[in-house]
Write a structure and sequence with these properties.
The complex is a heterodimer of chains A (451) and B (335). Chain A is 27% helix and 20% strand. Chain A has 451 residues and is an alpha/beta fold. Chain A has two domains: 288 residues, NADH-ubiquinone oxidoreductase 51kDa subunit (Rossmann fold), CATH 3.40.50; 71 residues, no CATH class. Chain A is globular and about 65 Å long. Among the domains of chain B are: 122 residues, no CATH class; 103 residues, no CATH class. Chain B is globular. Classes of the chains: A alpha/beta (451), B mainly alpha (335).
Chain lengths: 451, 335
């Protein structure tokens, strides 16, 4: 049974070429590297605190850094071996962060983890136990936001969850890790959805998938017939369809109030990425912590665009080599997709929990073009999915009119990049919007602290 | 260090769309081609001369100002001066002496565009400023229209006639009824196809509508301004016509004659000088429509599109201030 209505969000958005070059490559397990580099801060919130020291022997799955408080996440050894040292290593954000470096000596797992590939369907844990298990497993939002999952599962007082929404849109060009996961691990994902529904005490779950993945829509729709309360919805191919606000609007026709205050729970929704849902399945049904994830390694000149199941902490160079080596003409290496990803300055940067893909762009696509005068074409206004006026916000940020920028709702910006993407004059709209957001947030903070 | 191995670092996004300023400008020129063809067919060599002189003078003016006065980068390759030149020429009679055309181009580029800071910063449509400057400076030459389909090989026409709007205005002033004037006016078919006197680019409604479809298809403009402007003119002129058909022309005549379609499709939609939100664009189009009919019916000039657009250009900053896009999630936030 296919759902005939293709849903989407009502305003803005752009149509980048989807370039899903690695969509046909099944998930392949990447062999273990010689050394892994595991940062203690791979999530939003407080960095985890290292509980191992140089010289310690660790086993795969063992906690090596303890989450510091509720908004934090445990970090586990992704291999077995010897802790070489804890040092400052640059991660995909470009900052040097404390990182546990482990010399790999095989793959010896700790006790109590079910490594059998058999699917475990029966859910035995109660909601509190599920949340505890998710927290212990160090699960964060794998779509890239890296928000600790147990926080989302704990509904604040006064709010109620009605819907669990699952993000399978994967609207970023190039990336295919969620797509492959839905094709190959569809049943596990749906069991994960059931687990999350139980934890949230909701009876309805909706999975949204962009309709450039008809095979994934078909597979999950077929499987969902066996599960109560799970519906699969095809979504229009329109970036940023997988943005939290756009997804909620498309799937349940509710508008999450503007950032920074508004959250999906304000309209009764909790949103998880399919990758996160799969990790929840493994944590709850297999007692397996988050020590590996699927990462797409792709790009126009990549010999074998691939989807790898990679241990956290593996340098991205290992994946690049497994996909046929670094193309001669590579000019930019992006962690994440080309719309919202970060450009990396090194191939030694380790895979972290939030890394959904590595995109290698050729030199010709790496440089920005010459910035011209704004011709007031209003394309940025019509492309903005949040109804902002990027051309105006950029001018206000340039001229440091912070009060006006705040009044014009600069903090609502989700940094999706539609404005910069569409601008015919190549204006760095989003750069200035980011600068404006940061400055306005600082001003608000100091205003609050001064009473 | 091996520079060929260096990686580029920049903030997202890392992908960009296919729009560029040059593509937009050349798209506008392409959309003007049907009207250009109609002009050559109807007015002959005169039209070609005016267009070529206007474009050359506009591009030269921009080049000279950027090179010798501003001593900065020269941006004539963006195509915007070509668009200004063509649009100015389209708003001139085909027998206008070339020196006046040059003056018009210089005013359009020098005064209306470059003195405000160049492309993107001008509050008023440059081509229309050039046209209105010429209309006020050389009123005789600017209202001396060659007859259609005659003397097409001459660049200055001896045979001239009034535009349909001028015939109407003059007749009504002399106390004649619209119905009695009808034999002097061209048929609707001639108005639609362009077999009428008038400015170079405004005569053929058909050619202009083809250009409109192209602009919409290429997503260079949206429907809001042309539809709201033409819609307002038909409603306003329609009400007047129903009240007193002896004194007021019917709405179809208003739309097909004069510069309504050229103005609605190519002049009012000028990206730089029109509002930024759909709501603002509709207010802008409605304002132009009302002012056009007011000037045509109650003013001294037979035609009012240029003035109406320039007046509404002045309101654009105000419109932008008050017409905000629909902010996502605001309705939920306020209950």
């Amino acid at each position: 049974m296919k759902n005939p209505i293709i849903k989407t969000f009502p305003q803005g958005g752009v149509h980048p070429h989807d370039n899903k070059l690695s969509a046909g490559s099944p998930i392949a397990r990447l062999s273990l590297p010689k050394t892994v580099f595991i940062p203690v801060a791979q999530h939003i919130g407080s960095p985890a605190v290292a509980v191992v020291k140089a010289g310690d022997k660790v086993k795969t799955g063992q906690v090596i850094a303890q989450g510091a408080g509720f908004v934090s996440a445990n970090i586990h050894a992704s291999v077995s071996g010897t802790v070489q040292k804890i040092d400052e290593v640059m991660d995909s954000t470009g900052y040097k962060r404390p990182t546990i470096i482990i010399q790999v000596e095989g793959d010896d797992w700790i006790e109590g983890i079910d490594l059998n590939s058999e699917i475990r369907r029966e859910i035995k844990l109660n909601p509190e136990e599920i949340i505890k298990r998710v927290q212990d497993a160090g699960i964060v939002g794998l779509g890239g936001a890296t928000f600790p999952a147990q926080v989302k599962l704990s509904i604040p007082k006064g709010k109620t969850a009605e819907y669990l929404l699952v993000n399978g849109a994967e609207c970023e060009p190039y990336l295919t890790s969620d797509h492959r996961l839905m094709l190959e691990r569809g049943e596990e994902i749906l069991i994960g959805v059931q687990i999350l529904m139980r934890a949230l005490k909701v009876t309805q779950a909706r999975v949204g998938i962009e309709n450039n993945k008809p095979d994934a829509i078909q597979v999950l729709t077929g499987l969902a017939a066996k599960y109560n309360g799970i519906e699969i919805f095809p979504l229009k191919m329109l970036y940023p369809q997988g943005g939290e606000r756009q997804l909620v609007k498309a799937l349940v026709n509710r508008e999450v109030p503007p950032a920074p205050a508004g959250l999906p729970i304000d309209v009764g929704c909790v949103v998880f990425n399919v990758g996160t849902v799969f990790a929840v399945y493994e944590a709850v049904q297999k007692n397996k912590p988050l020590i590996e994830r699927v990462v797409s390694l792709t790009g126009p000149a990549v010999k074998k665009p691939s989807n790898f199941l990679v241990r956290i902490g593996t340098p991205i160079l290992e994946m690049i080599q497994a996909a046929g080596g670094l193309p001669e003409d590579t000019g930019k290496v992006i962690s994440g997709g080309p719309m919202m990803g970060r450009a990396l300055n090194s191939l030694d940067i380790p895979v972290t929990k939030g890394m959904s893909g590595i995109v290698l762009l050729p030199r010709g696509e790496s440089q920005r073009k010459e910035v011209l005068n704004c011709i007031r074409c209003a394309k940025c206004v019509s492309a903005c999915p949040l109804g902002l006026e990027p051309y105006l916000l950029m001018t206000l940020a340039e001229k440091k009119f912070w009060d006006r920028a705040e009044n014009e709702k600069i903090l609502s910006c989700c940094e999706c990049g539609c404005c910069s993407y569409i601008c015919p004059a190549n204006r760095p709209l989003l750069d200035y919007l980011r600068l404006g957001k940061l400055t306005v947030m600082k001003i608000i903070k100091s205003r609050k602290s001064h009473g | 260090m091996d520079k060929s191995k260096l990686l580029t670092i920049s903030l997202s996004p890392h992908a960009f769309g296919e729009f560029s300023v040059r593509k937009i400008m050349l798209g506008v020129v392409a959309a003007l081609l049907p009207a250009f063809g109609a002009a050559i067919y109807v007015f002959g060599l005169g039209a070609i001369q005016v267009i070529l002189v206007a474009v050359a003078a506009a591009v030269f003016a921009e080049y000279a100002i950027q090179k010798f006065i501003l001593k900065g980068p020269v941006t004539i390759t963006d195509g915007s001066a070509i668009v200004t030149g063509v649009l100015l020429a389209f708003n001139l009679p085909s027998n206008l002496p070339w020196e006046m055309v040059i003056i018009g181009s210089f005013v359009a580029i020098g005064v209306a565009k470059m003195s405000f800071g160049g492309l993107g910063n001008n509050p008023f449509n440059p081509a229309l400023v050039g046209r209105v400057f010429l209309l006020i400076s050389f009123p005789a030459a600017m209202t001396n229209w060659p007859k259609p389909l005659v003397n097409r090989l001459a660049v200055t026409d001896a045979l001239t006639g009034a535009t349909p709007l001028a015939i109407l205005k003059e007749g009504i002033k002399n106390g004649e009824k619209v119905l009695d004037l009808m034999p002097q006016l061209p048929s609707y078919a001639d108005l639609f196809l362009g077999n009428i006197g008038g400015c170079i680019g405004e005569i053929s409604a058909l050619a202009l509508i083809l250009g409109f479809i192209y602009l919409l298809y290429k997503k260079i403009i949206t429907w809001h301004i042309p539809v709201s402007m033409v819609g307002t003119i038909s409603v306003f002129a329609g009400i007047l016509w129903m009240v007193n058909p002896a004194r007021y022309a019917d709405p179809l005549f208003h739309i097909l004659s004069g510069g309504v379609l050229l103005g609605a499709i190519f002049m009012a939609t000028d990206l730089v000088t029109s509002p930024m939100t759909p709501k603002g664009m509709i207010i802008f189009g409605v304002g132009i429509g009302i002012l056009t009919v007011v000037i045509r019916v109650f003013g001294v000039y037979p035609e009012g599109v240029s003035f109406a657009i320039l007046i509404m250009n002045a309101f654009v900053p105000l419109i932008n201030k008050f017409c905000k896009p629909v902010r996502f999630g605001e309705s939920t936030a306020h209950g």
